[in-house]
Automatic annotation (TrEMBL), chains A, B, C:
The lineage of its organism: Bacteria, Pseudomonadati, Pseudomonadota, Alphaproteobacteria, Hyphomicrobiales. This is Aromatic ring-hydroxylating dioxygenase subunit alpha. Keywords: 2Fe-2S, Dioxygenase, Iron, Iron-sulfur, Metal-binding, Oxidoreductase. It comes from Candidatus Rhodoblastus alkanivorans. Residues 22-125 form the Rieske domain. It holds the Pfam family Rieske. GO terms for molecular function: dioxygenase activity. PANTHER family: CHLOROPHYLLIDE A OXYGENASE, CHLOROPLASTIC, IRON-SULFUR DOMAIN CONTAINING PROTEIN. InterPro entries: Cholesterol_7-desaturase (IPR050584), Rieske_2Fe-2S (IPR017941), Rieske_2Fe-2S_sf (IPR036922), VanA_C_cat (IPR044043).
Length: 358, 358, 358
């Protein structure tokens, strides 16, 4: 089923974005059963909706006749009717009805459809021209390992290049300076040189430290909230823009891992809307107080607000000051904590160059 | 009187717009006896005003001294006084007074004046460098054949290239899908292949059909408002952007023309403000209930609202999605009803190329 | 102390602005003892603040690490702490502390500092790469020769190229046409050909005339407010964008100068924010009613309002109509009163060309 490669010749131009990758298109919960959901991804207008059997569909959100967005149209079962001249398209993007003239359907009347996978509470989309490579969609199973009251998901939007977000999460040395009580390490993390883990197109960084009292998000779930605890945090980036973060703390003599510590398993994912704006999702599964719906709602809101109110103003200001998405071309002064984000930028650059070379 | 060719050397560059044509500058009623009326036409700032004898005047709305718009100035009889340094210009654009120094008037102190013709309730303007060709100003006499309570005029503005409007009116197959009861043909028009009429730089299209009940704008004026009627509609485009539309219906055995049917004689005209914004006027003369001022006001408002609320959002969205004014370069899928608008686009392209070649 | 030349390689590109000059950065009164004051000057983001001893400091408002503006950070004594990763910089722009890793400070961790001089109620800044040339900072001592209730300062901002302001002040022939009673010469000034004074990179213009009643701002301070008086006004431009204006009137047989007349000593200074926006300051010292604080406040407000409400709309409109900062390239029609501003434009052009040639 190669229908998704017929439309959009303009995307054959060299892209500033990596395309051979699975991007998040939306939270599963954000695309309701009846919705015609529009979102621009990698500068492509995309229509997301669900078939009557619930399966998600993604079409290029642009009628091939006069280029009106199909998301402004109506549903007819699993088909979409363009609001301007009522051409009708099925979930594969094929035109199935024209009320015009003899009703003949031009062979070219086809909108591009994009492969989707719904997994771990997200709808993932494949935007490259090539057939989708399912080996590139990683497993984030721990997000689903537990009750719904132990996991939170949130969507954020910011006016900055998506790599600025990757920089922010891959270099956690900012947390003591940008954030308040909620996630301060009380100055313990900044002086550490993180331990790097370089894989095949992946980069990890890990910090371990002690602090008193323990970090705000975990302290109350430790035996003695005011007493020193050992902590760890680990971030693992994989293409295109996914960072899995695990953080934990303990007051016992156990290995520093989520199996033994009070902690949480998080996912930060971004998808560029354009060169200067980014969709950003955060999901977090904790291993404590998992059955408290009220705390669950409070927790995800607090994290959302910390990102939006504390990180975003700085990231957006930096992006405006840079006036380019090519951070490294500006000869920044780099410090020890930049090792991980800079390595990620180099991989991203290499992967994009490889795509454009093909 | 060649004064209008002396100013504005920058307009000698190749233009994206057809210039050898009469464009509407304003409704006659919109330029009051005292007004200094500013409007940008084909990206040229234009000042419109009326001499004391009522004759309309158009000047380049830019003082040749320091480039302030003259429309921000004051009138001195038939002359205009610049608001910045009080240079004064007459209705031919000639500087007639300078309060500076010796009062000597530089020979170059001249603003371009544009030929105007006031006709059929519109002020028409000639923006080309060449002498105006009066044979290109067509006759829309039927608009004036009847009482003032039988004709309506309205002005609209939209953020889209003007050719998107021509496409919309030359392909009426959208009416069943975009508009409500007011002008639906109940699906009868879309399946028809319009009859085309190709002239010397003109394109016409005509549809004939039956529907029950008759079309909303005419049904109540037919003998039996709920019974089938024969209908016709005809659109005739002529340069630069004028479409004369006639629509009628009858329940008798008579020829399908306005002489014999209940119907109306309309004019759609557009003038580009810029590449991405358009002035749009609509005038309609009906041959029924011609003496009812209240209905007349209701009718023109209903038509105005249908265009603005139903067509414009789609047209503006399509224009944004296209990101170019060259529709055909995007390889659109074309359907039978596109024959007329595409032929118009080809003529427009040819005429602009001819102008730029000279 | 050459620290200000190490940062900002991008400023070595050819500039549209003159750089070897002292620009006003701010009014002394506008930079409080605790403030981190941000202003864009010649398209450079600048942080202004005062050391604990009151001395003003100017730093490039961009951390060299991740380019966040330092003005969003915090003070630590005379140092500034970046809000993102807490790098700390002293008043010379040198990084003095990094909380990251070993605390080692990269040699390149340096922001550019700009030489400042605080004088005559203004903070003057040197933005060129070369060592500051103090001979280029002129003396405006008369502003300070008298009580504080005899002098007013005001800041204005407009969306136009800064040379449009110079044009406006160097050609006073507009005052009769643009302004109301406050500074009209009752048509006496426009017919005069000003007397020019061309110096080494300076241009002066002087007008002398009689009017009845005397000019609005001075009439009430003359012996007979309704009787003819002799007037003079003189404007003197010097680089980069400073115009010293003196105006006076007398009803006695004395020389036309400020020593003998009722009048005022003014300074108009502008600094480009960008190519299309300008910071504009006006200061005025009068030699009458010098001890009336209430009149003093009224006077500066009236002048401020006259500029903002009467000049600015015309200047901004002209700038938009020009669509370029190169006024002379548009072949304007010039009149006698343009002699001074056109000569200034030619000097500015010459000086910029000289800088770019080096």
């Amino acid at each position: 089923m190669n229908t998704h490669v017929k439309d959009m010749p303009q995307t054959k131009a060299k892209s500033h974005f990596m395309k051979r990758a699975w991007y998040v298109a939306a939270l599963s919960a954000d695309v309701g059963p009846e919705a015609l959901f529009h979102r621009r991804l990698l500068d492509i207008p995309v229509l997301l909706y669900r078939k009557q059997d619930g399966a998600p569909v993604a079409l290029h959100d642009r009628c091939p006749h006069r280029f009106v967005q199909l998301s402004a149209g109506k549903r007819n079962g699993d088909d979409i009717v363009c609001p301007y001249h009522a051409l009708e398209f099925n979930a594969a993007g094929k035109c199935t009805r024209s009320p015009h003239g003899t009703g003949a359907i031009p062979r070219a009347a086809q909108v591009r459809s994009f492969p989707l996978v719904e997994k771990h509470g997200f709808i993932w989309i494949w935007l490259a021209d090539e057939e989708p490579d399912h080996s590139l969609l990683l497993d984030y199973g721990p997000l689903e390992a537990g009750p719904p009251t132990g996991v939170g998901y949130t969507y954020m939007y910011l006016k900055a290049h998506y790599e600025m977000i990757i920089d922010n999460v891959m270099d956690l040395s900012h947390v003591d300076h940008v954030h308040g009580e909620i996630i301060t390490t009380r100055g313990q993390l900044s002086p550490l040189i993180p331990q790097l883990k370089e894989g095949d197109d992946t980069i990890g960084a890990r910090w371990e430290w002690k602090q008193t009292p323990p970090i705000g998000i975990l302290a109350n779930f430790l035996p003695e909230p005011d007493v020193e605890a050992r902590h760890f945090v680990e971030v693992n980036w994989s293409r295109p823009a996914n960072i899995q973060l695990t953080i934990g703390a303990t007051q016992d003599d156990v290995p520093l891992g989520l199996d033994h510590c009070v902690g949480q398993y998080d996912l930060h994912v971004t998808t560029p809307e354009t060169e200067t704006a980014t969709h950003y999702w955060f999901a977090t599964r904790r291993n404590h107080l998992e059955h408290d719906a009220e705390f669950n709602a409070f927790k995800i809101k607090a994290m959302h607000d910390a990102f939006v109110n504390e990180d975003f103003p700085l990231i957006e200001a930096a992006g405006q000051a840079m006036e380019t998405s090519d951070f490294l071309s500006l000869n920044p002064v780099l410090i020890s904590s930049d090792a991980a984000p800079v390595k990620v930028r180099r991989i991203v650059k290499k992967l994009i160059a490889e795509e454009n070379a093909d």
